[in-house]
Design brief:
single chain, alpha/beta, 13 helices, globular, 4-stranded parallel β-sheet
Amino acid sequence: MSDALDPTPYDALLLLSFGGPEGPDDVVPFLENVTRGRGIPKERLKEVGQHYFLFGGVSPINDQNRALLDALRKDFVEHGLDLPVYWGNRNWAPYLTDTLRELVQDGHRRVLVLATSAYASYSGCRQYRENLAESLAVLESEGVEKSALPRVDKLRHYFNHPGFVRPMIDGVLKSLAELPDDVREGAHLAFTTHSIPTTAADSSGRVEDHGDGGAYVKEHLDVARVIADAVREETGVEHPWQLVYQSRSGAPHIPWLEPDICDHLEERHAAGAPAVVMVPIGFVSDHMEVLYDLDTEADAKAAELGLPVRRSATVGADPRFAGAIRELVLERAAAESGKAVTPCALGSLGASHDLCPVGCCPARAPKPAAAGADSTYA
């Protein structure tokens, strides 16, 4: 294997995702896992689970992860990168703890982690790191010597890597082409991502990025601008655009990021927009919140308004995304080996940090986290 494809010091890649139910009987137990410690009654969870029951109780996220695993393994083999890829979830099988146990049994000691969340935030980064620390602590409690536990390092945020952004640009171009000729040129672009509490947004990213939406909003705005600029360059049309939000789930009295996509569609229709392309830049794949909040709820709102809409594709298992992960693996391996690295990134923000610093995306109640400057498992 050439030096260019040497993953040393890493000996495995772990795909770490949220998880989702794979049948009606899984829905409430899955939601109990997601909401553990919040005291939410089972009857309320059954109400929340209606989104899943509309789709047979099956979230598409696990199949999306299987497809991404296949794409990663195929890409690694084709490019001569000898690195096994494992998969673990936070909230459903295959569970993270079980996968880390398997990694230990297979003798792996340096593991890179790919989280299926591209941006900085507590729920999109720090919480994954807390889950890693929790699972490592479980293995330690089972008798695994701390020296035998794998060191886990998380790949940097890849929101602005070309292999993540270019498929989204192509998705927008395709969606625009699918609109009727008489509304295409005036179509607005609604870049969507998960709404989070404004306090969580303001404290996202490094301490120096905190405030006014934090790194979470800054990163999404930068990617949206890159995509909109590329669409203008390739079509010759300047499409108005805005960053909007979806999937709010918190109490009404707590401020969350706005506007909601459905409110935005009403506003655009009232302002005379002839059509809207919804661009889910905040989601790696077509999981439940994309299928329900956009393809079901927002589509219904657009139909009610008589507003033509299209929803562009998420990145999913696009081969270019798999290639981006390979590049990120080699980039991090080179940096860990003391070699000079030129990170690849689009937009104005540059490449994200490799190691989450102290104070990055803090939780309300501090908990141990792995794969960061404050890790107890370094």
